[in-house]
Amino acid sequence: MDFTKLPGRQNKTWITEFVLLGFSLDSKKQILLFALGLLAYLVTLAGNVAIITLIRIDQCLQTPMYFLLGYLSCIEICWISTTVPKMLWDLLLGDKTISFIGCSLQMYFFVTFGSMECVILSAMAYDRYAAICHPLRYTILMSQKICQGFLACSWAIGNINSIVNTALVFSLDFCHSNEIDHFFCDIPPLLQLSCSDILDSQLVTFTISVGIMIVAFCLILFSYILIVSSVLKIHTAQGRMKAFSTCASHLTVVSIFYGALMYMYIRPSSSHSMEQDRLVAMLYVIITPMLNPVIYSFRNKEVHGAVRRVLRKNK
């Protein structure tokens, strides 16, 4: 352990680095996990970069919905890049240490991009509401200024949430151990390491982070209640199916993302199992960013059309 004695504070120490325990596996399984993790990371980068490129070069995808989707893909690339490269490094070389500053920066960016994704997913739900419930006013309800406002809001909320959480967690005393029972610097395992009174910190971090998550989820839920109400008024079954099909991809992503987050952060702290937490974290840190490009492109005629047009131009 790397501890430094603090002058004038009896039995208090300042940790200069942490150890990410990660996954307790033998060497063969670690190599397998490294290979799977690297594959998932590369697929995530390739899929999201492909989505961003298609949206930028194809005129038919220059719409508010795809503008938000491109921004979501940027967030996914940044989010997975805050945790997975370090995890792969640890699995490959066995160097599980991370500096105090490195750990705080990892938490800062992880919380920032996670909060931003919550906001953007709610913005995408509003986009579907505007398109289905008010098609004639869609260009007004989803104007360029409104889309830019969503982006600014996501940046502001993400950074404010991250600043508060990171400052609270890393202002605590860590004097019991520097071993984090996780594969990245997350809030719950770091709070467990502290020898300070963490009740106030837990209350503030829980209120702010979960508040953002719940408010964003409620906005999504409210949007879909209005969408369902509007769609049920459509007289033909074909019309209803067409309207619902435009929401299928977004609903799938929201279900996976929020299902994992709520299981991870809204459970009582007494019910936390770090082994389960690591598996759930793998779902929303690695699997969800990898699946998003597939979910949004699968059975999406506009994306398929854009791919065909790009391929024809290349030929």
In short, what is this structure?
This protein is mainly α.
What does this structure look like?
With 315 residues, the protein is mostly helical. The protein has a single domain (15-314), classed as Up-down Bundle (Rhopdopsin 7-helix transmembrane proteins), CATH 1.20.1070.10. Helix content is 73%, strand content 5%. It has helices spanning 27-57, 64-81, 84-93, 100-133, 138-141, 144-170, 187-193, 199-231, 237-265, 274-297, 301-314, and strands at 3-5, 13-15, 17-20, 97-99, 179-180. The strands form 2 sheets. It has a 3-stranded mixed sheet. The longest helix is centred in the middle third of the chain and has 34 residues, at 100-133. It is globular and about 65 Å long. The termini are far apart. 34% of the residues are buried. Mean pLDDT is 84; it is low at 5-11.
What is the succession of H and E elements? EEEHHHEHHHEHHHHH
Query: CATH architecture, please?
Result: Up-down Bundle
Distance between the termini: 59 Å
The rough form would be described as: globular
Task: Output the keywords.
single chain, globular, Rhopdopsin 7-helix transmembrane proteins, three-stranded mixed β-sheet, 11 helices, mainly alpha, 5 strands, 315 residues
